[in-house]
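Hi all, long-time lurker, first post. I run a small reading group and we've been trying to get comfortable going from sequence to structure in the token notation. Rather than ask abstract questions, I figured I'd post a concrete chain and ask someone more experienced to write out its structure so we can walk through it together at our next meeting. Sequence below, copied exactly:
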Amino acid sequence: MGEKQAEQSLFSQMHHVGLLVEDADRVAEYYQSLGIGPFEPRSTDKIQNKTMYGKPTDFKLKVAAVQVGALEIEMIQPLENAPVHQDYLERKGDGIHHLAFLVNNIDSGMATMVDKGPDVILTARRPPGGGVYLDTSEVGDTVIELVQWPSGMGKVDDVEKKETGQALFRIGQVGVLVRDMGRAVEYYQSLGMGPFEPLNITVIQRNVYGKPADDVVNLARATQIGQVQFELIQPISGESVQREFLESKGEGINHLGFFVDDIDEETAGMLKKGFSDIHSGKFAGGGGFAYFDTDRVGGVQFELIQWPPAL
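-- Answer (accepted) --
Happy to help. Here is the structure in token form:
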């Protein structure tokens, strides 16, 4: 009974995505031009007991964040003594390094995860709360962070949801590219996520870089975590933007999905802003999706999604 409750509390609410960047000011300005922002600086002055790989260290980071619907984008620029962050940037460039989940007790959450296998790679305590990175990168090349706010800053069940006021920019999905769907599902479910279910949607009129791409097939499985869908994608056939990412950067989070009411209207708005539709399609039964080349700065593609009315 106790173990089941611990697993549910660990992954009941996805709190933020951790976006690592070389130049935080440049990325913040770029995102604000899209309507995401302003990013608010986040003080790290009260952080105590900093460790990396089990050793005390005084790492320094430039951190800023913005709430986008139910999910926060936390932007991090490493400044000093931050090999965990810098190593990622050297391997992959700007991009989403970790997913953070809000917990009510950081110590019990960390103990539960360590019992399941992942090692602790970073701690940053802000008593009685704080954050801890766990090395879950062996599948999906994505680190999991557990976060507990200090007293008075909110718990899992009462975190304030701030909206940007724009339907286009309310994050509803985080997409991770994997090479082996079976292994990925098994791994994440062993940590307490899931179950992962097939997305039983038929795609028609698929285009990649503006050309018909009926040969493209991607396998997708997803689970709902609070208000955010966590999606795993494995390219199966054809030349897709997913396969392109996997071959150039390896496994990892390649996109944030935004749920919209009118895919055609919102796509037209993105095109007017100067972005290119790099992968799109219609769903049988209505709606559709479109990926855009927003990764030119910040390393993250944005996907717009309008689900069929029947879903």
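A couple of things your group might point at:
The longest strand covers residues 71-80.
The chain is about 25% helix and 40% strand.
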